[in-house]
Specification:
alpha/beta, about 40% helix, 8-stranded parallel sheet, two-stranded antiparallel ribbon, 12 strands, TIM Barrel, 12 helices, single chain
């Protein structure tokens, strides 16, 4: 499989990695650790070499799951990324603030290393920006983790262009992790140009629109329940918005049909077509979806198709997060 390099690092990965969040949090009950570890190992054997997790996913549960998968000499087969910052509300299970203080950098990193069962994290992100701590202070402490050999490269998730430049002045930032898909292109105006100016790579999360772009859902079936983040805090899955957005997915399906592939593969191929400095981390709990996602690398879209699909973002109904969530991104 082809490889892409994340920013100005030596992290060379397959363009389609694996986001592990959904195995433990946000989309319903978490997987049994043995089943999740099995899935991760099967994904690695199929060609996945980039795993992404975070402290907040199940309040550490996902890191523990990933750590179990990487025991017995599996660690050296992957680029391992995790994130810190959000504080979790034990009653709701969702974030209630962000702590980017140097003290929390130290606490969180030590916890992640322990749960993952590793000596070094390849790519360590500030998951969201802390409005009460200067980014210089956060990244300064993160840089000390690099000096100590506990972290290899640094990243930010959902930052603004200004914050990225300030952080990069303190210590090189290898990657920015942000939502990017056919339906979500807001980083293209300011953030992506700043990243490319600095040589920072993009790790695109939710490239499948949290499942919507796969064509899986229709009017009779959509995410629901008190433990599915999409039903609770994703306006694009609400009532009239949902109906309108499914009509846009039909256009992705039409392109997929013309290629004899699946909508998910077209959605991933579109993201990957936007630059060789972009890699993706679609999540799943099923190995057949891992195989589908990896095969997207073989899909080649025409310039007209890329343009046609790119125009859909302007027609999407609903923000990608609720008001609380939107307040925490691009800052």
């Amino acid at each position: 499989m082809s490889k892409r390099t994340i920013g100005k690092s030596d992290l060379n990965v397959t363009p389609v990695g694996l986001g592990c969040m959904g195995m433990s949090w946000a989309y319903g009950p978490g997987m049994d650790h043995a089943d999740g570890a099995k899935l991760i190992r099967e994904a690695i054997e199929a060609g996945v070499d980039h795993l992404d997790t975070a402290e907040m996913y199940g309040s550490g549960d996902n890191e523990e799951l990933v750590g179990k998968a990487l025991k017995d000499n599996w660690r050296d087969k992957v680029t391992l990324a995790t994130k810190f910052g959000p504080l979790m509300d034990p009653e709701t299970g969702f974030p209630k603030g962000v702590d980017g203080s140097p003290e929390n950098v130290r606490r969180a990193s030590e916890g992640s290393l322990k749960r993952l069962g590793v000596d070094t994290i390849d790519l360590y992100y500030l998951h969201r920006m802390d409005p009460d701590t200067p980014i210089e202070d956060t990244v300064g402490e993160m840089s000390r983790l690099v000096e100590e050999g506990k972290v290899r490269f640094l990243g930010l998730s959902e930052c603004s262009a200004e914050t990225l430049r300030r952080a990069h002045a303190v210590h090189p930032i290898a990657a920015v992790q942000s939502e990017y898909s056919i339906f979500t292109r807001d980083l293209e105006s300011e953030i992506l140009p700043a990243m490319r100016d600095l040589g920072v790579g993009l790790v695109a999360y939710s490239p499948l629109g949290r499942g919507m772009l796969t064509g899986k859902y229709d009017q009779s079936e959509k995410p629901k329940g008190d433990d599915d983040f999409r039903a609770l805090a994703q306006p694009r899955f609400e009532a009239e918005n949902y109906e309108a957005n499914l009509k846009l997915v039909d256009e992705i399906k039409a392109v997929a049909d013309s290629h004899g592939v699946l909508p998910a593969q077209v959605a991933l191929a579109w993201v990957l077509s936007r630059g060789d400095d972009i890699v993706t981390i679609p999540g799943t709990t099923k190995f057949k979806h891992v195989e589908t996602n990896l095969a997207a690398q073989k899909v080649s879209l025409s310039d007209d198709e890329i343009t046609r699909l790119g125009q859909l973002a302007d027609r999407v109904k609903g923000a990608r997060y609720n008001s609380q969530g939107m307040a925490s991104v691009n800052r």
